[in-house]
């Protein structure tokens, strides 16, 4: 997607490319996890249709997801992690907007610690949550307490 956005240039002042690219950190946080082979493995399928105008500028995108590996929520093999969003939220537990969620470090929860190591070398989960939140902001959404409550309930 970044290649198409770079090659295509900007079609309008609304910065459609930024919005299209903003979907990546969100999809990675919610749909990717650490496996024994890959620290950022996509655990779902996605089909992305990118719309272009006659001058090859991106004018929009549509994403369809399928086959989310739901079993990962309740089980991780040794040296694997659950979905990144859980670790991002735990790493940011001290933020005022998450105070009432009762979050602590990922090691304190069975579903984030059963694979063993809850960290990934070179990854700052708190920083990644900021990137995820920024992506939501670009898309006109906010990652805050109500969303977090709904997200935990959903999973």
UniProtKB/TrEMBL annotation:
Q: How is this protein named in the record?
A: Myosin motor domain-containing protein
Origin species, per record, is: Patagioenas fasciata monilis
**Assigned protein family:** Belongs to the TRAFAC class myosin-kinesin ATPase superfamily. Myosin family.
Q: What keywords were assigned to this record? A: Actin-binding, ATP-binding, Motor protein, Myosin, Nucleotide-binding
What Gene Ontology molecular function terms does this protein carry? actin filament binding; ATP binding; microfilament motor activity
Q: Tell me which GO cellular component terms the UniProt record holds.
A: cytoplasm; membrane; myosin complex
Alphabetically, which GO biological process terms does the record hold? Answer: actin filament organization
Question: Which residues belong to any copy of the Myosin motor domain?
Answer: 1-155
SUPFAM superfamilies, per database record = P-loop containing nucleoside triphosphate hydrolases
Taxon lineage: Eukaryota, Metazoa, Chordata, Craniata, Vertebrata
A Pfam entry, by short name: Myosin_head
């Amino acid at each position: 997607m970044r290649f198409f956005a770079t090659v295509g240039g900007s079609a309008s002042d609304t910065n459609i490319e930024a919005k299209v690219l903003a979907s990546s950190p969100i999809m990675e946080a919610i749909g990717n996890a650490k496996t024994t082979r890959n620290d950022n493995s996509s655990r779902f399928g996605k089909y992305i249709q990118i719309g272009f105008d006659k001058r090859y500028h991106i004018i929009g995108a549509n994403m369809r997801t399928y086959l989310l590996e739901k079993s990962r929520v309740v089980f991780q093999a040794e040296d694997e992690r659950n979905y990144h969003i859980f670790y991002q939220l735990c790493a940011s537990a001290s933020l005022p907007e998450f105070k009432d969620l009762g979050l602590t470090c990922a090691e304190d929860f069975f579903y984030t610690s059963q694979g063993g190591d809850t960290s990934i070398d070179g990854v700052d989960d708190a920083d990644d949550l900021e990137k995820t939140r920024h992506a939501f902001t670009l898309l006109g959404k906010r990652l805050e307490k109500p969303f977090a409550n709904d997200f935990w309930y959903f999973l």
